[in-house]
Write a structure and sequence with these properties.
single chain, 74 residues, mainly beta, two-stranded antiparallel ribbon, binds FE2/S2 (inorganic) cluster
Length: 74
């Protein structure tokens, strides 16, 4: 799951489930691959259309969102 840049996505309003286990084939979204593990997806309510930056390095303190922590990897 380690990547040095966030996933920047223009999201529509609605409930989103972002992968927390890193095994999804549809990253950054959960595809159910976590089943049988102790991981659960991040559930996020998006109230209106907006662009979000989803963490891909796993080091953000604001998961599932990027907080710039990936910069320490560069
Ligand atoms: S597939 Fe990773 S949390 Fe669901």
């Amino acid at each position: 799951m380690e990547q040095k840049h966030p996933y920047v996505i223009k999201e529509q309003a609605g409930t989103k489930y972002y992968c927390a286990c890193g095994k999804s084939q549809n990253i950054p979204y959960c595809d159910g691959a976590h089943k049988g593990s102790n991981f659960h997806p991040w559930k996020v309510e998006i109230s209106e259309e907006k662009t979000v930056a989803i963490c891909s390095c796993g080091r953000s303190a604001k998961l599932p969102f990027c907080d710039g922590a990936h910069k320490s990897l560069e």
